[in-house]
Amino acid sequence: MVKIAVFASGQGSNFQALADAAAAGRLGGASVELLVCDKPEAPVIKRAEAAGIDTFVFRPKEYASREAYEAEIAAELEKRGIELIALAGYMRLITSVLVKPYEGRMLNIHPSLLPAFPGKDAIGQALDYGVKCTGITVHLVDGGMDTGAVVAQLPIAIEAEDTRESLEARIHAAETKLYPEVVAVFAEKRVSVEGRKVSIAGR
Ligand code: GAR
Among 39, 53, 153, 179, which one is least packed by beta carbons within 10 Å? Predict the structure, then answer.
């Protein structure tokens, strides 16, 4: 069974979707072993506790550098035999301390059609820009900000009457459906990566 760690900083709707899919046997036979969270007050922690999933919670300010806390996380992941990382609203850049050992095995979900609107508040950026279509992207994580190879994308139309809340609700609904599907194909080892081209067997 492939052991997965989910990294999150906030509400945790994507964490919940992954945990639920694993519990229902819809995550390619993978199990969610650990939540890694950089915010001790984040609601996602309660979700993990309710689901009986272990947590590794830390305060970045208590470390000398990004590399220092990532080294602790890497040791924890290794101890638990984690094979795959799913970033799910984890609002921090990742350094080579984690990127290197998990190259090709670390995913992120982002609420835009990358490369449009990387970084923070992608939904607000899309609304401010006035685009008529945005979407969601699942991509591999490299050293950059939302720059890794694209694994899956779904477009979402922006309607004239959309508010931030209504658009965010549609984006979250799409994310919580797509992310478990993508994590499942990774867990089933149906993915091959050549440079920026990612292909999924049977799709
Ligand atoms: C999600 O919309 C995710 O795509 C976004 O944060 C939200 C977390 O929601 N991630 C990023 O913006 C990463 N750059 P959640 O905590 O309810 O899953």
Answer: 153
pLDDT in tens, the chain (203 residues): 899 999 999 999 999 999 999 999 999 999 999 999 999 999 999 999 999 999 999 999 999 999 999 999 999 999 999 999 999 999 999 999 999 999 999 999 999 999 999 999 999 999 999 999 999 999 999 989 999 999 999 999 999 999 999 999 999 999 999 999 999 999 999 999 999 999 998 87
pTM beyond 0.85: yes
Question: What is the Å distance from ligand 1's center to 191 Cα?
Answer: 23
Give the list of residues 6+ apart from residue 129 with CB closer than 8 angstroms, or none: 117
Domains by residue range for the chain, with CATH: 3-191 (3.40.50.170)
What string of DSSP letters covers 76-88?
HHHHHT--EEEES
Q: Other CB atoms closer than 10 Å to residue 78's CB: what's the count?
A: 10
Q: Let me know: does 5 contact 74? Beta carbons within 8 Å.
A: no
Q: Find out whether 58 and 38 touch, Cβ atoms under 8 Å.
A: yes
